[in-house]
Amino acid sequence: MAQKPSILVSRKIFPDVVDHLREHFDVDSNDSDGVLTPAELIARLQGKVGALTTGSERIDAAVAAACPQLRMVANIAVGFNNFDVPALSAAGVLATNTPDVLTETTADFGFALIMATARRLTESEHFLRAGQWNRWALDMFAGAEVHGSTLGILGMGRIGQAIARRGAHGFGMKVIYHNRTRLDAALEAECKASYVDKTTLLKTADHLILVLPYSSENHHTIGAAEIAQMKPTATLVNIARGGIVDDAALALALRNRVIAAAGLDVFEGEPKVHPDLLTVPNVVLTPHIASATLKTRHAMAKLAADNVIAYLTQGQPLTPLNAEIIGKAAR
Known about the structure:
CATH superfamily of the largest domain: NAD(P)-binding Rossmann-like Domain
Distance between the termini: 24 Å
CATH topology of the largest domain: Rossmann fold
Helix content: 25-40%
CATH architecture of the largest domain: 3-Layer(aba) Sandwich
Strand content: 5-15%
Oligomer: single chain
Number of strands: 12
Shape: elongated
CATH class of the largest domain: Alpha Beta
Low-confidence stretches: none
Largest sheet: 7 strands, parallel
Number of helices: 12
């Protein structure tokens, strides 16, 4: 019997997904779930033709050069800023991600974070847990209205559209958005969303949520200057990627009440969090869990595995990021 090709699963995932992979491959699974250093990652990738990865692992030209047998990498995420896709394409390494399966779950969480931020849930819970609640007051933790307010969305892909539908149809919000390309009229009507320029978005939104992919071009898309354009009563929510917001500038703006509050699920340099964000009361902080339901995380892992199986056994991945390399000479 021919020896099965080898693949790496870089972090601990669901056992049944690993078993599914083992039907086709010799699987090296990092069940300790420790984050591999770049050197450890290269060492574990030796002799591997494929890998299931997460945002914890940077896959770039250096990794591709050091791992000549590597033919594909499958991210268990919709985002892929941990991949240098042009470098992988140049090296003949296919990259995939997991779109669609996490759209609705992530949109649910985005709206939950809007609600928690606007209504000061974290701040009021800390107050209660500290034993400071000894009387009721009319203005105690009075937050911002959500129903009927203006929802601003920066980035209007699948998740942005799902958030828009929740806001418009569920909460009667006026929805405005800015995106690199405008949606067609039918999709705008479905989302009840109006296109505006970025400056108008910043100045008009009562609640601004970021749902755009990270790239070097939009690093610190929201910094001190952008926050200063927002309403002092506004809230800012980031469920996109760390680095889109200048976390230091945001912490200072929150301390000085330039805006009312913020909700963050992603951070620059995560899992580290800028220390100033931990000392301001008017921010809701969560550890990158927007897609974290068991059903959705399992679907993400399963799609990543199916991509590996489909490409390495049939040459046809399900959700490629650089499909142009398919059919070219193998490495």
